[in-house]
Structure to design on (295 residues):
């Protein structure tokens, strides 16, 4: 009977974790502006050199992806769509495995992670998992 | 509902295939856990090791549960809305293989408790995959990379 109890316990725990994860996945969280974007070099902001593209005049959507990531492709499509729709919004997709220093400095734990930078490169919003398009657009609207 | 114009290949697959496989794996591992220490339990674990090995080292197209999905399930359900890359679920098969092969080795060496723990973790991963489309191995991959190159 021990085996049955273990199986039941695993199913209950995994269900609880799965529900918790689903409710948190892709949610845009506000980043404290005073501590936002601090890298190991003490930089308060992410600049064009760090992320590899010019910052958008309004905002920049920074995505971290990896090879073994199911929702990364859908995330990329959403961010490309939003950056094409809203003027002054740039998008960059960073390979987490090839940029482990940056991943550690920004404490990226999952892919996809999406950072919303304001016009000077400060990290203002952060989401782990596939974000909803409306939430990305809303986050851009809240930057001003 | 829109359907994809893409055709399933060995690199781009119907995402419902791995979830279907995860459901069968969940049942197999649950029964293996309940019958742990009996010949039935060992046979089920051996079978699952072979299944994972085919998926990880040969390819998802060679994985028996994927074959069942393509032969009997896919023709009876709608076309997939979109396809996904085969690399993440294939990596998950490798992680599953490591845990279940370790459990099988532990059983033969008399370590039933440690085998139970390994199968329990594999069962949790298979269940999360089937029920929530959550790939535990994929999530751990980046964390492992972060650790392995630090310091």
């Amino acid at each position: 009977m021990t085996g049955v109890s273990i199986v039941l316990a695993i199913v209950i725990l995994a269900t609880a974790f799965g529900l918790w994860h689903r409710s948190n996945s892709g949610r845009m969280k506000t980043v404290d502006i005073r501590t936002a974007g601090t890298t190991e070099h003490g930089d308060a902001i992410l600049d064009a050199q760090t992320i590899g593209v010019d910052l958008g005049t309004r905002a920049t959507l920074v995505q971290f992806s990896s090879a073994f990531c199911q929702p990364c492709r859908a995330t990329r499509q959403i961010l490309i769509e939003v950056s094409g729709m809203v003027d002054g919004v740039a998008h960059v997709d960073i390979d987490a495995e090839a940029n482990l220093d940056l991943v550690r400095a920004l404490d990226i734990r999952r892919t996809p992670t999406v950072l919303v930078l304001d016009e000077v490169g400060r990290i203002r919003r952060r989401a782990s998992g596939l974000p909803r398009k409306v939430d990305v657009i809303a986050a851009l609207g809240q930057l001003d | 509902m829109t359907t994809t114009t893409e055709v399933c290949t060995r690199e781009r697959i119907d995402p419902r295939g791995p979830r279907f496989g995860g459901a069968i794996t969940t049942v197999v591992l649950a029964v293996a856990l309940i019958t742990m220490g009996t010949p039935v339990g060992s046979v089920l674990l051996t079978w699952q090791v072979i299944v994972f090995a085919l998926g990880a080292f040969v390819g998802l197209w060679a994985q028996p549960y994927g074959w069942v999905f393509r032969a009997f399930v896919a023709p009876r359900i709608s076309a997939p809305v979109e396809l996904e890359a085969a690399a993440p679920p294939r990596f998950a098969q490798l992680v599953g293989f490591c845990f279940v092969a370790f459990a099988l080795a532990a059983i033969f060496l008399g370590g039933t408790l440690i085998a139970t723990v390994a199968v329990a973790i594999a069962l949790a991963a298979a269940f999360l995959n089937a029920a929530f489309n959550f790939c535990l191995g994929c999530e751990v991959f980046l964390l492992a990379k972060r650790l392995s190159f630090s310091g």
Summary: The longest strand of chain B covers residues 12-13. Residues 87-108 of chain B form the longest helix (22 residues). DSSP finds six helices and two strands in chain B. Residues 12-148 of chain B form one domain.
